[in-house]
Structure formats: C-alpha cells, structure tokens
Amino acid sequence: MAEIADDIFSDAAHAAVELIGRSGARKLEIGFLHENVPMEEAGWYAHAQYRGARITAEDHTSPAAALEALARRILTGGRCTHCGGLVALTDRGALAYATSTLADGTPWNVEQAREAGQCRWRRAGRTWKRGCE
Ligand SMILES: [Zn+2]
Questions:
Q1: Which CATH number fits the domain 1-75, given the four candidates 2.40.50, 1.20.120, 3.40.50, 3.30.160?
Q2: How many Å lie between the centroid of ligand 1 and the Cα of residue 133?
C-alpha cells in the first residue's frame, strides 16, 4: 500500500486535486475496479461532478495518473478564467478548436476561438499554472 500512498501524495495528484477544486467541481471521486492485483492493473478512475455534468478519466495505472488525466480533460475545452483565452495544453494549441461547446456548455465556434486566443497551461510541480500569469 506504500506505493499507492506515494502516488496519491505525488505532485501530479496534488496539482490535479487543486485544479479540480478550483474548477468548481462539487464532488471528486477516485477508485479502482479490480482488487487483489498490482496497482498498475487495478484500473484506476477519477470522476468530477459538476452542476449538470460529470467528467471522468478511466482505466489508468495509478490514482495520480487518473487524476492528472481528469485534470487535463477538465482543462481541455475550457477557457482561462483570468484572460478568457482557450486553454492549450500543448504548444500545438488548444484541442477544443474542433468542438462546438465548451466544458461548461457554452456554445462556441471556430471564429470565437480564434478571437479569444489561447492560454498555454502547464503543470509546474504541485500546481497547474496558467500561461497569462
Ligand atoms: Zn489565461
């Protein structure tokens, strides 16, 4: 179990939980599907519950991996609350250009996305940092 504790208290897990909290999630749940197997095979998942929406990350090799995947999913398709730009997680740009609604349900199109610009978010140790900081 020491392995799981180390993972849960890792920087990636800490940053993800902080981000999910800041994102307005009402509930965060993490767990695994398979018992009596090594941690990597347990099938870790993380769910964040919002008003009217649930975002999930499933089938990961550790709790931190599931939490980080969930944090990335929440950021992808979202707007930076500070500068209003579309959140980009890679230098190639915001993936949400192709989608028609934001994570919060706001209708969205390519022109609006171009006008809003991008904000390149990255995880720095124990916290997620926005690009416009
Ligand atoms: Zn920003």
A1: 3.30.160
A2: 7
